[in-house]
Design goal:
The chain is α/β, with parallel strands linked by helices. The chain has 2 domains: 29-280, Alanine racemase (TIM Barrel); 281-409, Lyase, Ornithine Decarboxylase, Chain A, domain 1 (Beta Barrel), CATH 2.40.37.10. 31% of the residues lie in helices and 21% in strands. It contains 12 helices and 17 strands. The strands form 2 sheets. Strands 1, 10, 11, 12, 13, 14, 15, 16 and 17 form a 9-stranded mixed sheet that branches. A hairpin with an 8-residue loop joins β13 (333-338) and β14. The chain binds pyridoxal-5'-phosphate. The site of pyridoxal-5'-phosphate (PLP) has 17 residues, from loops. Residues 54, 56-57, 76, 99, 190, 193-194, 229-232, 273-276, 370 line the site of pyridoxal-5'-phosphate.
Length: 421
């Protein structure tokens, strides 16, 4: 049946929920560490391989520190505050990939100051960067293959995407950068999101390797790295299969040997900037049932809402739900699992078969560890929940407290109300 394992027992999570009010997000440190090791080992054949964790997926400094400490992950940032987070965690210099778009000058200046690898999203950003911060020694461009590459469901067709340079612009960008004295180069593309087909990732690497060879030959420049971006999917549904990362690695190695090594371009470092697959399966949103409502359908109302996890409402995404302590009960209650936002799409699940639950039961919403808490917002006066870390030794550490009403009002100066009419 549709069982997805949990890193805690029903008793454990019940006692955690007695101490920390629900809803909260809880991350499984052991799972995150083992997964990070597995990725690092899988790509050990490539000297200089590095995963730059996409900070936007789970921008918590405790998680960044775990990833850096465990497997020397860098940080993929796209804004000033994300750069600050990386810096706080001791990730700096070329440990940071600055893959931004529509970038303000102040953020280029900051990224340059940190010595981050700057990944340009447009040809026009070359002179923009030169004017605001000066050109660095090392520069990367983001490629958009357009109709050359079929899109996937979430990211859509590359030619409709706002990201990256066309092929012609790419050649021009590297040529101008070379002529202006940039001496070190990287190449990047990110063409997938939540992709579960391993061959799609291998093909992306192949596309980039071929392009790196062509550009190198035409312009006489050397690529230090190829960054295949993020976008590796996770099995949100119980019947889906996790991507076989060793298979991906072997496939990419084969392409590397056939394309990069044969052309005499080796060594080229392989970078990736996965977010979802790094923390996604190891984070859980834990909430309590408040009301069971029966009208034309049955609604299980939680004390969490889409402000805590927006993916189901935003993309109609599936997130598996476990009723704590009822794992072995038959799932014979068909219901919508809802939040309390005044938005009808505030639902964690629609027509889901759950065991009979009642008010007070704890529900665990799976795979909320990436693009979960991070997408939180305050619409309808909803407050973001706490983030907890289930440590490898079984203890629990609060790594971000829940927002309070004071946080909600903190940006308003109520003293100005005195003279306001
Ligand atoms: C969002 C993003 C990522 C991470 O994507 P995942 O789907 O979480 O792996 C990586 N790189 C860039 C540029 C992104 O925008």
């Amino acid at each position: 049946m549709s069982i997805k394992p949990l890193p805690f027992t029903a008793e454990q999570i019940t006692s955690i929920a007695a101490k920390y009010p629900t809803p909260f997000h809880i991350y499984d440190e052991k799972g995150i560490r083992e997964n990070a090791q597995r990725l690092r080992k899988a790509f050990a054949w490539n000297e200089g391989f590095r995963e730059y964790f996409a900070v936007k997926a789970a921008p918590n400094p405790f998680l960044l520190k775990i990833l850096k400490g465990e497997a020397d992950f860098g940080a993929d940032c796209s804004s000033g505050p994300e750069l600050m987070l990386a810096e706080y965690c001791g990730i700096n210099g070329e440990g940071i990939m600055f893959t931004s778009n529509d970038t303000p000058a102040s953020e280029f200046v900051y990224a340059k100051k940190l010595g981050a690898i700057i990944n340009l999203d447009d040809l026009s950003h070359l002179s923009f960067l030169e004017n605001c911060a000066g050109l660095p020694d090392l520069l990367c461009f983001r490629y958009n293959p357009g109709p050359l590459k079929e899109g996937n469901a979430i990211i859509g067709h590359p030619e409709d995407a706002k990201y990256g340079l066309t092929r012609e612009q790419l050649f021009e960008g590297y040529r101008i950068a070379r002529d202006k004295g940039v001496s070190r180069f990287g190449l990047h593309a990110m063409v997938a999101s939540n992709e579960l087909d391993p061959d799609y990732i291998i093909e992306t690497a192949e596309l980039l390797f071929n392009l790196a060879v062509e550009i190198s030959k035409e312009l006489g420049i050397r690529f230090e790295f190829v960054n295949i971006g993020g976008g590796i999917g996770i099995p949100y549904k119980p019947e889906q299969k996790a991507m076989d990362i060793e298979y991906v690695s072997e496939g990419i190695k084969r392409k590397y040997d056939q394309i990069i090594a044969v052309s005499g371009l080796a060594p080229v470092k392989l970078f990736m900037e996965a977010g979802r697959m790094i923390t996604g399966p190891y984070g859980y949103l834990v909430a309590q049932v408040q009301h069971i409502k029966k009208t034309y359908k049955t609604f299980v109302g939680l004390n969490a809402c889409m402000a805590n996890l927006m993916r189901p409402a935003l993309y109609g995404a599936y997130h598996h739900i476990t009723a704590v302590g009822k794992e072995d009960s038959p799932a014979d209650m068909k219901c919508d699992v809802t939040g309390s936002l005044c938005e009808n799409n505030d639902k964690f699940a629609i027509d889901r078969q759950l065991p009979m639950v009642s008010s007070g039961d704890l529900l665990v919403i799976h795979d909320a560890g990436a693009h979960g808490h991070a997408m939180g917002f305050n619409y309808n006066g909803k407050l973001r929940s706490a983030e907890l870390l289930l440590r490898s030794d079984g203890s629990v550490l609060q790594i971000r407290r829940a927002e309070t009403v004071a946080d909600y009002f903190s940006t308003i100066d109520f003293s100005a109300m005195e003279w306001f009419e």
